Amino acid sequence: MIVIMKTDTPNLEIQRIIQELQSESITPEKIVGKHKVIIGLVGDTATLSPEHLQQISPFIEKVMRVDKPFKRASLEFRHGEPTEVSVPTPNGVVVFGQNHPIVTVAGPCSVENEEMIVETAQRVKAAGAQLLRGGAYKPRTSPYSFQGHGESALDLLAKAREVTGLGIVTEVMDSVDLPKVAEVADIIQIGARNMQNFSLLKQAGAINKPVLLKRGMAATIEDWLMSAEYILAAGNPNVILCERGIRTFDRKYTRNTLDLAAVPVLRSLTHLPIMVDPSHGTGKVEYVPTMAKAAIAAGADSLMIEVHPNPAKALSDGPQSLTPEGFDRLMEQMEIVGQTVGRWSKKFSLSTATSFSTTKALSKSSLAK
Ligand code: PEP
Ligand code: MN
To answer: Which of 93, 159, 190, 289 is deepest in the core (most CB within 10 A)?
Structure first.
């Protein structure tokens, strides 16, 4: 249930209402939006009547039930106002949100050595990426596959951050590693395979770092939002959702089925920022550019792209990784679509002249594919 306060309600009155509504089974939560203050009521609200609550104060504009199983993650809980996840990095604050330019996160699947991670970081930065991704702890289907270099890879990510100023996105697989990962990561990734690791979600909810929550490969949108709810309920409001493809009956030509319809569906259900990962979503480098552009057109707030200096030699996910040159070309194409939907940062824009010739070149080649 949410209680929408009238504009200019005195703070003391809000406090009074919160106190009055506080009970053993209900925790009122103050949500300060750009235009309005909302008091969210989570817990056993079944016996409360909106009409009765409305009488508590003349400053209450409206009381509404949230009839979805996810509450804090629901669009209603913020009265339709999108969440902005601000990520401070040495290069400045990167903001994920519906009213902001698209954020590109790029880098290798795994951190392999210092030279490759620093070189990749420099290349993706030059192409316009704002954050570097790279796994130190890798969730692999086979125990015999490369598992990631662990703690030493975290040091290499810290080095790449220092050299390039790019913020770091890296995965935590086990809550035991959370403090170490949080020390280096600017955004903590919870991978598809851990989307319903509820104890990890609760612990990620208790830290002061944004969390990137990837969709489980067999998760419904509601399962996914309920997982986000765990993090929000534990006190961390900074959650980004990442669509990375789901398992369907057809796995012959793509690794997963990238559910781009999830973007507008999520938009209608939640205020949280939405990222799309066409690399894991398709598993094949040749399909990544098309789906990256489609994700922008569908309204994604952010893209995650795997880039490796030598994909043929990659220790994980080489077949879906772009070369740095391929990533340069993709960013040029993404800029065109991003500008068309009014979501591209001018800071990284190509010059007008280049942009014009690129538009012409692309309309004849890759964009027409
Ligand atoms: C990854 O980002 O490298 C990864 C393992 O992703 P996912 O959890 O989506 O498979
Ligand atoms: Mn990967």
So the answer is: 190
* 19 contacts 73 by C-beta, under 8 angstroms: no
pTM for the whole structure: 0.92
Kindly state if the Cβ of 148 falls inside 6 Å of ligand 1: no
Instruction: Quote the ligand 1 centre to 280 CA distance (angstroms).
Output: 7
Average pLDDT over the chain reads 93
Nearest CA to ligand 1 atom 4: 191
Question: Do residues 295 and 276 make contact, with C-beta atoms less than 8 angstroms apart?
Answer: yes
pLDDT value of position 237: 97
Atom 1, ligand 1: residue with shortest CA distance? 109
Angle ∠(215,130,329) on CA atoms, nearest 5: 90
Q: How far is the CA of 117 from the centre of ligand 2 (A)?
A: 14
pLDDT tens-place string over residues 32-91: 988 889 999 988 888 889 999 999 999 999 999 998 999 999 999 999 999 999 999 999
Q: Edge-to-edge strand order for the sheet containing 37-43?
A: 26-32, 37-43, 2-5, 60-64
Long-range contacts of the stretch 147-154 (C-beta < 8 A, 24+): 148/110, 148/111, 149/110, 149/111, 149/112, 151/180, 153/110, 153/111, 153/117, 154/180, 154/181, 154/183, 154/184
247 Cβ inside 6 Å of ligand 1: no
Cα angle value 200/239/209 (rounded, 5°):
70
CB 280 near ligand 1, within 6 Å: yes
Q: Which helix (H) or strand (E) holds 304?
A: strand 302-306
Report all structural domains of the chain as residue ranges with CATH numbers, in order of start: 2-65 (3.30.70.1140), 85-358 (3.20.20.70)
Q: Which residue has the tokens 């951050």?
A: 161
Between the CA of 71 and the centroid of ligand 1 the distance, in Å, is 27
- Which residue in the block uniquely carries the two structure tokens 């056993």? 44
Q: Is the CB of 72 under 6 A from ligand 1?
A: no
Average pLDDT estimate for 175-204: 98
